[in-house]
Amino acid sequence: MIDSSLRVEHLQAFAKEKQILYDISCRFEKGKVTVLMGPNGSGKSTLAHVIMGDPKYTTAQNAKTHVSGLFLNKKNILNLPTEEKARLGLFLSFQSPIAIPGVSVKELLRASFQNKKGSNNKSVSALNTRISFFAKTLHIDPNLLNRAIHEEFSGGERKKIELLQALILQPAFAIFDEIDTGVDVDALKIIAKGVRELQKQGSGIVLITHSERILQYIEVDTVMVMVKGKMTHVGSRELIDRINRNGYRDLNTL
């Protein structure tokens, strides 16, 4: 049986000598939507960056279990470089995407696509068709595609471009770090539609968020809660409702 999951097992992470993540274990499934919530500073973004191989963080074995890792299709990919993880199908949308002067959106999309899937005349033609189709789906002005990536883009435009990249690449797992912040309600609905489309393509979706705004438009399969660098709760959408009513402290009574 093919294991179509991304598993984190007994992960510990450090920024310099400060421990940020403590014995994190969790599992994400292809074609499913997982919401990762928690107070500010709980380690949600750190977990995403460690998964993608950000060199700012180091990892260590759990002293008790002597087992830790990041498993994709049962293969431990924890220590692979970011570029290789991307080729294997992992994607991270940044909380604050940076501008890249001199590189257009189309050039970035083509380079990312070719890095993952290779290049030939047929694939380039198909890529151009996909770019046009999904740009229209996300209500992205075609002129934006020829501009330098994220240079003088609005918050909503930046988030849409990040989502467009995911739709083009069709990753096995896409992690979106607060893709719902800084956007108006109309843009939020469009972004939610794009996330649903990506899920329909078979990607596993991980949404890191502080708010339930985008969750009004997306069917959630699993909710995970992090507090102070630890994974404290895993459950259904009912967890979101409880957090909204009473905050994170109330979860201690579960």
TrEMBL record:
Keywords of this protein's UniProt record, alphabetized?
ATP-binding, Nucleotide-binding
Instruction: Determine if ATP-binding is one of this entry's keywords.
Output: yes
Query: ABC transporter domain: from which residue to which, for each copy?
Result: 6-253
Please list the GO terms describing molecular function: ATP binding; ATP hydrolysis activity
- Do you know which InterPro entries this protein is assigned to? AAA+_ATPase (IPR003593), ABC_transporter-like_ATP-bd (IPR003439), ABC_transporter-like_CS (IPR017871), FeS-cluster_ATPase_SufC (IPR010230), P-loop_NTPase (IPR027417)
Alphabetical list of Pfam families matching this protein: ABC_tran (PF00005)
What PROSITE patterns does this protein's entry cite? Answer: ABC_TRANSPORTER_1 (PS00211), ABC_TRANSPORTER_2 (PS50893)
Family classification: Belongs to the ABC transporter superfamily. Ycf16 family.
What is this protein identified as? FeS assembly ATPase SufC
**Top-down, what is the taxonomic lineage of the species of origin?**
Bacteria, Candidatus Gottesmaniibacteriota
